[in-house]
Amino acid sequence: MKTALLSVAMVMMCVTMAHSVKPLKDFNLEKFAGKWYRVGLAYDSPGFIPFRDKVKISMGVITTLPGGNANLTMWEALSIACIPKFYQYNKTSVPGHFIYFSTRHNMVKDVTVVDTNYSEYAVVLKYENFNREYTQAALYSRSPRTKVQILQKFKAFALSRGFPRASILTPPPAENCPASGSG
């Protein structure tokens, strides 16, 4: 019972914090589903900057579930292998705003689709409270390469949210991750 109350309190805290960020008006999950590449990233954790050179473009696939939830499969290129990671995004009362449970951090995290045109790019903001508040912004593209104007728009958004310039990056492509035919 105590664990359930703690979980509910954490979800409510994430939802409250997320209200300072507005999701895209009239967000459409069906149009958002499909293959995306994470081509830009900004993270306000001071511990992130030393690892920025290890980050590669990662690919993900979003599939819709009944009731407005979604599954995300992300492939991450690590030094030893290409590792798939699986997430279930649960809808909230606000379209474009989701929560999910991170097994890595054993906590609920908050994801908001801030902007997308569905066919080229999406800007997503992730919030987590892990000993202190952290925020991550990500730029997704339908292809591993994106237009310079879209990258500039993402960088301007990240700077406007207070991300340090050194924490904003556009990673290089990952080689064969996922392997051909996986995504």
From TrEMBL:
<dbReference type="InterPro" id="IPR012674">
    <property type="entry name" value="Calycin"/>
</dbReference>
<feature type="signal peptide">
    <location>
        <begin position="1"/>
        <end position="20"/>
    </location>
</feature>
<dbReference type="InterPro" id="IPR002345">
    <property type="entry name" value="Lipocalin"/>
</dbReference>
<protein>
    <recommendedName>
        <fullName>Lipocalin/cytosolic fatty-acid binding domain-containing protein</fullName>
    </recommendedName>
</protein>
<dbReference type="Pfam" id="PF00061">
    <property type="entry name" value="Lipocalin"/>
</dbReference>
<comment type="similarity">
    <text>Belongs to the calycin superfamily. Lipocalin family.</text>
</comment>
<keyword id="KW-0732">Signal</keyword>
<dbReference type="InterPro" id="IPR000566">
    <property type="entry name" value="Lipocln_cytosolic_FA-bd_dom"/>
</dbReference>
<feature type="domain" description="Lipocalin/cytosolic fatty-acid binding">
    <location>
        <begin position="33"/>
        <end position="172"/>
    </location>
</feature>
<dbReference type="InterPro" id="IPR022272">
    <property type="entry name" value="Lipocalin_CS"/>
</dbReference>
<dbReference type="GO" id="GO:0036094">
    <property type="term" value="F:small molecule binding"/>
</dbReference>
